[in-house]
UniProtKB/TrEMBL annotation:
Native source organism of the sequence: Paenibacillus eucommiae
Pfam families from the UniProt entry: YabP (PF07873)
Domain of life: Bacteria
Name used for this protein in its record: Sporulation protein YqfC
InterPro entries named among the record's database cross-references: Spore_YabP/YqfC, Spore_YqfC, YabP_sf
Entries under NCBIfam families matching the protein: spore_yqfC
Length: 92
């Protein structure tokens, strides 16, 4: 059933010219240099410190490591961080 639903969502997205991240609830990550990171479609913040951010995603987790990390804005499904970003890692 899940496979059929996924196929239907992909077909609908192509037909209506919708972005895949919206239809499949995938995270959208926008990074400006290594100093700003904006993440959409996350589920929750699992851990935050000035050197590590862990986010829960629909499928998997996202880890951001760096220095002097600061959350500038956080909303239900969006988070905006600043600092010196060393690594962004997706964990299935």
């Amino acid at each position: 059933m899940r496979r059929l639903t996924r196929k239907w969502n992909q077909f609908t997205a192509k037909l209506l010219d919708l972005p895949q991240d919206v239809v499949q609830d995938l995270p959208r990550i926008t990074m400006i240099g290594n100093v700003q990171l904006y993440i959409e479609n996350h589920r929750s913040v699992l851990h935050f410190s000035s050197e590590l951010l862990k986010l829960e995603l629909t499928k998997g987790k996202l880890e951001v490591t760096g220095k002097q990390l600061v959350i500038r804005a956080i909303f239900t499904e969006e988070v905006f961080i600043e600092g010196v970003i060393d690594e962004v890692k997706y964990i299935p």
